[in-house]
Request: fold
Amino acid sequence: MKKINGMLVASLIPFLFLILLFLFIPLFFMIYGSFQADGGTGFSFKQYQEIFQNEYYRQAFKNSILISLLSSFIATLLAIFATYSITHFSSRIQNRVLIFANLTSNFAGIPLAFAFIVLLGNSGLFTLLFKHFGWETLSSFNVYSWSGLVLIYLYFQLPLAVMLLYPVYQGINKHWKEAASLLGASSTQFWLRIGIPIILPSIAGTFSILFANAMGAYASAYALTGSTYNLVTIRIGALTTGDIFAKPELGSAIAGLLGLTLVVAMLLNEWLTRKVRRDLS
Amino acid sequence: MNKNRPFFHYLTIGAVLLYLLVPLLGTLIYSFSTQWHKTILPEGLTFHWYGELFSDSLFLKAMGRSLILSVGATILSLLIMVPAIFSIVVYAPRLEKFIQALIVLTYAMPGVIIAVGLIRAYSNSGMPMVVVTVGAYFVGILPYMYQGTRNSLRNIQAVSLMEAAEILGASRFTAFLKVILPNIMPGVLVSSLLSFSILFGEFVLVNLLIGGSFETVQVYLYKKLNVSGHIASAIVICYFILISILSSIIVKVTRSRKETL
Amino acid sequence: MSYVTIENISKAFKGQTVLHDLNLSFKQGEFVTLLGPSGCGKSTLLRILAGLTSPEQGVIKIDGCDVTNVKAKDRQIGMVFQSYALFPNMTVSENIAFGLKMQKIPSETIKQKVARMVALVGLAGKENAYPRELSGGQQQRVALARSIVTEPKVLLLDEPLSALDAQIRKNLQKQLRTIQQELNITTVLVTHDQEEAMAVSDRIYILNEGRIAQSGTPHEIYTKPGSEFVARFIGNYNVLEGSELSIATSEREFSNRLYAIRPEAFSAQYMEDSYTFSGRVNKVMMLGNITRYEFSSNGIVVTAEHLHQSDEDVQEGARKTLYLHKKDVIPLS
Reply:
């Protein structure tokens, strides 16, 4: 009785074909490769053992997780206040700020790393300025260091955090605040008892997206110093394409673990978003 | 509300905007300065770096390659993804869950990870890595194309429009072409521009998959970093102007659509 | 001779049967209404008739042909959707012309037909407007024009007036009926609004939980509700158990389980051959030209309505005697 819908079939086949070819097959090859001994000579857990035993790779994970947590935390915190402040301005200004955030969120990777080199590099604008005024501690700041990298990560996380949190504040119904104040609640009481409990899952969701975003970032760190930073993504890139030190199976295993981390972060976000939707509906 | 706005609100927004603006301004000034190594202010201003950049045939070729990759992937997704999303939303809404799962998967597989798999799967397969890169781009922009297309379809109530057109004697394909497509075009266009601007700035896949043999603007920029900071900053500024133009088109189209709907 | 027949139609969604073996038939030129609460299956039945949903079993015949397996686009049916489904990228005349273009009719003929239709639905001067520039009522008339310009064999209307204001709805009901009679189109209307059904239909099918609860002319249905469901659904009928009626009237002749009484059947004037209710007025509600009040007789509460007349003022708490003609106490099955 059920008729086959020609339009559905004709449009789905090429789509699914491309998804299979460029998402599932590489995913499969990566996972399969991660369970191979060096040179692809048979099934083995060796690569995963290597990651957990080798101090160097453990350090890479530690570094990536630390910088992701730190940059996500600062960006979320700043965005919580800044976005709340944005809602106090006219809708025209709100729009402008959001457009600017959207624009700068595209400003990442190589160009961003370069902009920070211009500011804080060895002969960067600020470095020269600080030297001129004789501020030693500031002028000796090194953009190629960890703190430099944190600044860069913060730059690409911040606009994203603002854009993710803005709709959350929009979702806070003005009438709730009015109703609460008619019932005798002060602004602080409103936020403590109603506002923050409502936005908390969204904040956590935003944090998990930022975390995933930072964990997967590659270009900025690569642009600063090539392969010297010991980050997970840099390690993967080096192990996969490096000519001398190429260990693609090990790279696959690290990529697999990174992917797993990201899946967990995304599922956490999904779960939190669903929770919010249930609360608000 | 406007009158008693505490200073605090200016402070927070000001701090964020300043942080986002300063690196851009620094790069802008640097790209126009003659020499800037020892003094606090540049020694002179010049268009020289832009002139040199645009007379460099390597840069123009890199520009062309970047366009081929990002325009190619965007057009591919217009031709294949949009009809597929249309079919799913209208005829098989149960499959939307599947697409959403795919999207989570693409978020969980950023460039570095997918690159590892793509190299293992295709580096010796005979498929040109440029094609592989376009394919990976196609997958990468799925979230944006899906969002835009699905929202447009919902806004116009595509299911009823299709039924109305069919009852009036149109075949499914005619109805899609004459009724659905013209109405979702602005939304799809916005998604395409967004996808394009994201792909145009993509570095990871290009670098890992085809970096050596297929130099795009991003790769060109990376190579220039250590050669000439001034030219590099001129590239960054040009890139930023390009995404600004794209963004302003996106904003304009979105706004005019909101007014008409 | 029936023009449209629906034979043994059944439909289930996810194992849940929404239509149970339905049989209906409409005459040519008839205005039929499928009336029922939301979820009764009336819209599903309409969509099956249109070919937008296929039934699990059963046969649909239009003008003598079995169309059960004919696609929607080839059924020669017109349909007005609840949301109108006007094409936003097309003007009023392009919307109306769409069906004709699909039939590859010469453009001169299309022009004439569209112009005639625009005039018929009273949209002259709006030909080049886009749907978003029109009011809800105007959009509704474009949708109507678009669906009848192709001279369909059957016109289907899926709650076409439900999104409009009460005043505009009343006007459009009249206009709809006039146009339908002028063109003599067999029309099937789906609605949950019993007043609308009464106002426009030649015949009404009342649906409840996928089954036909009752069918008949508006007059038949209103004066002789066959079941408790129909009595409750189509008006403000008092539905009382036999025992309650015995208490209220102090008479013992109510052997049936349930009875229905129209509120306006109560009279303050004595009538031959009637039951007597004496008691107290509880709550009074003014509904324009009608006064509605609750009346409690021996503890049994009924609702009564009177035309609003100054000489017969109903006061809350007042004692009163009401009379009810015996033929107005309708036993329910």
